[in-house]
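Deliverable D4.2, example record:
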Amino acid sequence: MIDRGTVRSIIPIVVAMACGLALPTAAAAQDEAPPRGPRPTVSRSAPPSPNATVNLINLLVKQGVLDEAQAAALVKQADEEAYVARQAAREAATKAEGAKTTADTALEATSPKGTKRVTYVPEVVKKQIREDLRREVMAQAKTEGWAAPGKFPEWVSRIRFMGDLRVRYEGDFFPKGNDPYTAVNYNAINTGSPYNTSNTGTGAVLWPTYNVDQDRDRARLRARLGMEADLFDGFTAGLRIATGDTNAPVSFNQTLGGSGGNFSKYAIWLDRAFINYRPWDDLSFYAGRFDNPFFHPTDLVYHRDLGFDGIAAKARYEIAPGITPFFVAGVFPLYNTDFNVGNGIDYSTGTVGKFPSHDKWMVGAQTGSDFRMTPEIDLKLGVAYYDFMNVRGQLSSPCFVYTSSDLCDTDLTRPSFAQKGNTYMALRNIVPVYVNNVLGPQYQYFGLASAFRDVVLSGRLDFGHFHPVHVVLDGEYVQNVAWDRADIAAKVNANPIWASGAVAPCPSGQSGCNQVYEGGNVGWLMRMTVGYKQLKEFGDWNFHVGYKYLESDAVIDAFADSDFGLGGTNLKGYFVGANLALGQNVWASARWMSANQVAGAPYAVDIIQVDLNARF
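Output generated by the structure prediction step:
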């Protein structure tokens, strides 16, 4: 018999059935089979049934917990609910089978026979799949000649364009007292027809001279456009074109209103054209026409924009933390004789033939080191040696000159370009010819009286304690070790009618006096700059102040700064300037330069320059 405690534990189950709630899983599982034969009945005398639920209810009837009517109602309700559950299960199974069939059909459509399915793909396999797809698509695009909209060809990504533009106002102001008679423009003579020195009897004012007493105002323009292209395996190539009044090496300035005026168009010159090979970050080779490869913190020896023709190599290597030695060397042609140089007469043999070539070269080498003394202090020092070969003028063999087109055998030793300041000598040993006791024409060219082998010390000290404001000290010293005072003085005295910038002038501009050579062979420059090293944003600024001293024959005047003293050597004086960023890549600048002669006839000029600059 079942005690009342057991009955009480079963009552909730029966009540749940009576209220339409689901029975425990085990009981429900036993009722899943469809009913067979007559439905079970409930009675006190009923025999045991194969249905556990019916047996449980019969036991409750026998115990008096339920009467027969209640038990029959419960059995009926349980039987009906079990039937409904079985029907729902059959419908769900049918729908699931249909969904499986649909999924299998879709899978078969997307994955034909032989396709393997994996639930996990390693990252390396994914990467390989992407690379294979990329190559396949790129090959198809190349074959069919199509690309995505806005997509540029591959070569475009290897080319970089850059340029700058400067608009300048320049005022040149000459004080009283400059001597116009000794400012001989040897460049005008040497690049044109030779000058007839027999005209000097009528006055030295007939010589071509530089302006030294008339103030001038000029608007000037400089524009440059360059391109660099990556080639392969460390090779790059570069080109740049630029403006300029002439093809002079030291200035890209185009005077507005010049070149004929009346809004005439201006010339464009090829300024850079080179190939660079850089096998490692710290080793570079250059060939062609390129930027100055040497460390030159100032314009004392070379103008800042001077380009170098030839070949050069640059190397650097950090031997210890903060210590990086460097080395630069190169060979540079300064002048190459015309292949079909003119005919001349050898008066010793009476034969006519081509003149020999007279090529000019510069060989240079520099070594030094960067010293990162602290994170805020950077020091760079260098020492260089520049040997200018065949640049000194040579006296010709005796030659007869009847017209300005006649040639002598050392005419090619004259400079192909010059500014002013170097000491000059007459090149032609002209045989005097008299007609009716009157001396015939004396057409003359002029060459450099000194040889040039320069030793240059260069340095830069950068204090960055107040970054982004820096204090930078730049300095250079040069000495021409090939200079010979006695030799130059002898050449000057051999042609006393020709005064040089470093020769004491004749009294009152007279010619033919016993002139004294006062030139020298050294030069130095010091400059301090305070402010931002780079002008990137509006309000960035810097200013500088410095002093320059450059004797007549310390360097070749053709390559020196073209602004200070209006260019050349035999100059000393101070300069100040400032720069202010007006925005990204646009800035304004102003500079004042006051220059005087070092030796010789009085000469002075003050220059102001106000610039608007842009780069891109």
